[in-house]
Amino acid sequence: MAQSLGVVEVVWAGVKFPCEKGAQFRQGGLVNKAVTAGAQVSRSQEMMASRVQCSTPFMTGMSIAAIRSVTEGELQFVCDTGQTFVIANAFLVDQPEITGGEGGKLTLTWEGGEAEELLQ
């Protein structure tokens, strides 16, 4: 029986973050954009950043300063279905957001260049 994606972990600068349901990965790379002139439509290409968003439990001893101290580095989006997406030059794009209650969570968002897909 085929398996669909269920559990995701993010590894950032060697630290593993277990992700809550809803973690997202968007592959970056060249994308087409419509260019209109009069009654004609053509296309041009531009680079779109890869993006990862993950909410993880905010635990005793976690440090926002330590997470933010890494300015750029390797990020891995590890899927329980065997795929790992690696962004070599990832960086945090938003301030980390902490939500209280319901176990507490820390939401992190990274962007970077085109990700490499590794299959197990």
Write the layout of secondary structure elements.
Layout: E1 8-12, E2 15-18, E3 24-26, E4 29-37, E5 40-48, E6 50-57, H1 64-68, E7 73-79, E8 83-92, E9 97-99, E10 105-112, E11 116-119
Antiparallel strand pairs: 1-2, 1-7, 3-6, 4-5, 6-10, 7-8, 8-10, 8-11, 9-10
Give the CATH architecture.
Beta Barrel
Number of domains: 1
By secondary-structure content and strand pairing, the structural class works out as mainly beta
CATH class identity: Mainly Beta
Question: What gross morphology would you assign?
Answer: globular
Show unreliable segments.
none
- The CATH topology comes to Elongation Factor Tu (Ef-tu), domain 3
Report strand %: over 45%
Distance between the termini: 17 Å
What is the helix content? under 10%
Average pLDDT number: 95
What's the total helix number? 1
**Rg computed from alpha carbons, rounded to a whole number of angstroms:** 17 Å
SSE order, as H and E?
EEEEEEHEEEEE
The main sheet comes to:
9 strands, antiparallel
User: How many extended strands?
Assistant: 11
